[in-house]
Amino acid sequence: MNNSALYAFNKYCDTVLRTAFAMTGSYPEAEDITQEVFLTLHAKPQNFESEEHMKAWLLRAAINRCKNYRISAHVRRNQPLDDELSDKLSCEFSPRDNEIREMIHKLPEKYASVIFLYYFEEYTVKEIAGLLGKSENTVSSLLQRGRKKLKMILIKEGYEYGAQRV
User: Fold this and answer.
1) What mean pLDDT comes out for the span 87-105?
2) pTM here?
3) How far apart are CA 166 and CA 162, in angstroms?
4) Are residues 84 and 100 in the same domain?
5) Average pLDDT over residues 127-150
6) Highest-confidence range of 54-58, 71-75, 87-91, by mean pLDDT?
7) Beta-carbon count within 10 A of 91 CB
8) Are residues 114 and 138 in the same domain?
9) How far apart are CA 4 and CA 51, in angstroms?
10) What is the mean pLDDT of the chain?
11) Taking Cα atoms as reference points, which of 28, 58, 64 lies closest to residue 44?
12) Are residues 87 and 121 part of one domain?
């Protein structure tokens, strides 16, 4: 690996892996996506303006690969298997966060990605807009609609919206 790819891997591997896992719900797929992201960076080195630019590029690359994974024929044909490996990443989130993450995974990708980046990675609307190549108004709308859809999923799953803050 070239120095920038190795540096990026050492610094951001966990972040990319968590993002891919949150988006796919599959630890093996998250590992594959993470590997693809860093191999791409190694094969096609990038010039980053800052640490934040590097992190944004890595997350964007992971999100794009997750989108491809979610629409692939493989995902549509196969039911996910309960996999003990997913516990590796699940322990990085609190039990409540794991439940919420599972609910987020049920959302369409356009909502899931902005909600994950906003709440779990703590990006601002402006930063998410830059990451996803969308306007701030679009990201705000996606967040608002995604929250509504997530609220409906949570209510359907038995969460009381007033009793537990969503």
Assistant:
1) 63
2) 0.65
3) 9
4) no
5) 91
6) 54-58
7) 10
8) yes
9) 11
10) 80
11) 58
12) no
27-52 burial, b at 16+ Cβ within 10 Å, e below that, comes to bebbbebbebbbebbeeeeeebeeee
Residue type, 57: W
What is the pLDDT, as a whole number, of residue 24?
81
Domain span at residue 123?
93-166
Instruction: Pinpoint the alpha helices (H) of the chain.
Output: 3-24, 27-43, 51-71, 73-77, 86-90, 95-105, 109-115, 125-132, 136-156
Token pair, residue 132, equals: 């996803």
User: Average pLDDT, stretch 101-119?
Assistant: 84
Residue 137, token pair as written in the block: 């108004």
Instruction: Give the whole-angstrom CA distance, residue 78 versus residue 139.
Output: 31
Longest dimension (CA), the chain: 51
How far is residue 137's CA from residue 32's CA, in Å, rounded to a whole number? 33
Query: What's the structural domain count of the chain?
Result: 2
